[in-house]
Write a structure and sequence with these properties.
The protein has 362 residues and is an alpha/beta fold. Helices cover 34% and strands 18% of the residues. The protein folds into two domains: 151 residues, DD-peptidase/beta-lactamase superfamily (Beta-lactamase, 3-Layer(aba) Sandwich), CATH 3.40.710; 153 residues, 3-Layer(bba) Sandwich (D-tyrosyl-trna(Tyr) Deacylase, Chain: A).
Length: 362
């Protein structure tokens, strides 16, 4: 479920997109661009390609209804090979192709997610004491993490939990007479997707608009991501000499609170690379809820997949060629056809965001 089976080649101007659903792909040597060979040569090469792909599928025991293959020559604008291209199949992590494409199209590669720090009141003059709670408001950033997690797991530089302690120290805060409260209200409180089979949560951390280290504490999946995040921040504050008198809690930022710091994630282009190359399910599900919150009226999986479905239709993908239930492909109720994915990839190849999309693929 965690390996994307989408491969792409660019050979002398020819962009060939191959999708294998429900099977294992074996690499092929593909013909040169149609612009550099005659029509007769193209037909011969196409026949040879078809024969070779079919032979590989037969030899591997994959020439069956559950395997779909589509090869498209972008230069000539013709299909070179098609097998079960209209069959709805379970896409697994190919679903992330849809999630990342929709995110790029709707936000752009420079978009950043935010996590905001609020104070009930500014520190009393000359004392460094905040009388009241400190609030950490999640904005759906899938990448908020510790420095260690970024170095050893994500392999990117992005929003860092320790920056909130630095921000408070820069304001001269030495004591908080109150709690650190986490606000996760940007999303709903569903930690997983309803259509997932039992046990699928082992492949994805708990979903929350305020989450740290993808919802894991030293390898253990936490039950309350927002509370885990503010408990960790409380410890960081205390290590940095800021006394916190109350225990961490979950709540909402009051209208009277004062915004004192905003932490930003790495650009979206970086995040989708961190998602697609290792096939990170948590990033995909968080981005789906983010799409719902930003463009679908609610920070829910249902709203997010509705946004993604609308995006696919806008790109000319037939509504009958897909069924989306989540953003990662963990749901066995997700369905895509090879024809639908080929259409999406063709459209993305003509987009201004294509270099970022291409760079994110494994």
């Amino acid at each position: 479920m965690c390996t994307m089976r989408c491969l792409a080649w660019r050979l002398r101007g020819l962009a060939v997109l191959v999708l294998v659903l429900g099977g294992v792909f074996t690499s092929l040597a593909l013909p040169a661009s149609a612009s550099s060979i005659s029509t007769t040569q193209l037909r011969l090469a196409q026949t040879s390609l078809q024969t070779r792909i079919t032979a590989i599928l037969v030899n591997r025991g994959l020439a069956r209804p559950g395997t779909a293959v589509r090869v498209w020559d972008r230069t000539a604008g013709v299909g070179l090979y098609a097998r079960n291209v209209s069959t709805l199949l379970t896409p697994a992590s190919n679903e992330k192709l849809v999630t990342s494409a929709a995110a790029l199209a709707l936000w752009g590669p420079e978009h950043r997610f935010t996590t905001r720090l609020y104070l009930s009141s500014l520190p009393a003059y000359g004392t460094g004491v905040v009388h009241g709670n400190v609030y950490l408001q999640g904005g759906g950033d899938p990448s908020l993490s510790s420095g260690w997690y970024q170095t050893n797991v994500l392999h990117i530089t992005t929003a860092n939990i320790s920056h909130f302690a630095k921000a408070l120290k820069s304001l001269g805060v030495t004591k908080i007479v109150g709690r650190v409260v986490g606000d996760e209200s940007y999303f709903d409180t569903q930690r997983a997707v309803a259509s997932w089979r039992p046990g699928m949560t082992q492949w994805c951390g708990p979903l929350s608009a305020l989450s740290l280290n993808e919802g894991y504490d030293d390898g253990t999946r936490v039950t309350n991501p927002a509370l885990f995040t503010v408990r960790r921040l409380t410890k960081i504050l205390e290590r940095n000499g800021i006394v916190v008198t109350g225990s961490a809690a979950v709540g909402r930022v009051p209208a009277t609170a004062v915004l004192c710091f905003t932490e930003q994630s790495a650009p979206l282009a970086t995040l989708i690379k961190a998602m697609n190359k290792p096939s990170d399910n948590f990033f995909a599900e968080m981005l789906t809820k983010d799409l719902g919150a930003a463009f679908g009226g609610a920070g829910t999986t249902a709203a997010g997949v509705a946004v993604e479905a609308k995006f696919l239709r806008s790109e000319g993908v037939a509504a009958t060629s897909f069924r989306l239930c989540d953003g990662s492909g963990l749901s066995y109720q997700d369905k895509l056809t090879a024809g639908a994915v080929t259409r999406l990839l063709r459209q993305m190849a003509g987009s201004v965001d294509y270099p970022y999309y291409w760079a994110s693929l494994p």
